[in-house]
Amino acid sequence: MGSPSSLSLVLLFVLLVSLGVAVQHCHGGETSSFVRKVEKSIDMPLDSDVFRVPAGYNAPQQVHITQGDLNGRAVIVSWVTQDEPGSSEVLYGTSEKKLKFSTKGKVTHYTYYNYTSGFIHHCTLRNLKHDTKYYYKIGIGYTTRQFSFTTPPKVGPDVPYTFGLIGDLGQTYDSNQTLTHYEKNPVKGQTVLFVGDLCYADTYPNHNNVRWDTWGRFVERCTAYQPWIWTTGNHEIDFAPEIGETVPFKPFTHRYHVPYRASGSTAPFWYSIKRASAHIIVLASYSAYGKYTPQYNWLEAEFPKVNRTETPWLIVLMHSPWYNSYNYHYMEGESMRVMYEPWFVKYKVDVVFAGHVHAYERSERVSNVAYNIVNGLCMPVPDPSAPVYITIGDGGNIEGLANNMTQPQPKYSAYREASFGHATFDIKNKTHAYYAWHRNQDGYAVEADKMWFFNRFWNAKDEQSHSS
Ligand SMILES: [Fe+2]
Predict the structure, then answer these.
(1) pTM of the entire structure?
(2) How far is ligand 1, taken at its centre, from the CA of residue 230, in Å?
(3) How far is the CA of 329 from the centre of ligand 1 (A)?
(4) Pick the catalytic residue: 235, 279, 329, 358?
(5) In Å, how far from its chain's centre is CA 325?
(6) Euclidean distance between the first and the last CA atom of the chain, given in angstroms as a whole number
(7) CA separation for the pair 278, 311 (Å, rounded)
(8) Are the C-beta atoms of residues 354 and 333 closer than 8 Å to each other?
(9) Rounded CA gap, 61 and 59, in Å?
(10) pLDDT for 81-114, tens place per residue?
(11) How many other CB atoms sit within 10 Å of the CB of residue 196?
């Protein structure tokens, strides 16, 4: 004992330990000090008021709208009638009292194990005027119901527009709080960008599809009045060969239509739309995305079509995040990141919204595209051409919060917090957008995380971010 060699080993050990401590303290981001009370997230019971079936024979229910074309002059109206097919016609117009126009849609239904759906209607209203309030009536023949929506302004570079961000919503008491906070937010979202995982019916025995119906009725108070732009998550796959259900996305594709053909896509899981001053690309984490696949070929052709002079803001939606520092779904998005991240940097995507992880996180602008197997360059680095990655899978579903984070917080992670909530992305003009995240425990106007976005094409300066 006490030999020079063992002494140097001890010294080396002390040095390594202190280096380790130093590295642990050398992180740039912020982990919120807000600690949410630990409670179980439970689904609202079937007799909850939010699931109530509208009164009247064969009354249309689960009404929802989404953009129906590339530029925002069409709207897809969807609803379900339970007793009989009824009519797929929509009456609509700009006067509440006199609906001058009508269009006929189509009706479909499906079975899933021992469940048979109601009659699902989809009807596309086309050639609408921009920036105009329309009223529409459905359920023609028996019980009618009337709703309204406002079309977006004509696509253009300096058109202000406000998007809401919601992910992984489910149908718990927390989900209801999230939706209420979105509705009561003084910053009024005009369209929801939904990043996947809708109803979590697949958490029930045999994927009890009744929970697709209850979810449709729960969110109707918002989805009937403003478009929700749909992204598919893992809870939409509904692949269950053990009960004979071998067609992936069967309930989702019957119930939720998207305008994928308008952007040259061949499947409803990846597509793009232009809305006001934004070009929005929706990607599919659970459809093939490797080289030569339909999604890869489509995205390769899509990026060069983005015209930042027409739509300065380039937003990408996906379900599984690429940059996530929680110990949930860690690195699940990695293979898609490896495939597509160089394009995101090359084409200067402004922001990427993802869900899947049931918590909130915002990244710095970083990229990790230098690695080529042999050079060892495999760490994220600051990159002004890279997007900000935001995980917003905190809608409040039955699986509960992700509150176990990787430690230390990686440098690329700017802010993270295990709370339920929603966000708004408020485009002011072609250079500036104001982003804010709201946690459900706060008052409706409180911003728990916020950031001024500077457009990557027109104003690629450093942004200062603030959290509180
Ligand atoms: Fe998910």
Answers:
(1) 0.93
(2) 14
(3) 9
(4) 329
(5) 19
(6) 54
(7) 5
(8) yes
(9) 6
(10) 999 999 999 999 999 999 999 999 999 999 999 9
(11) 27
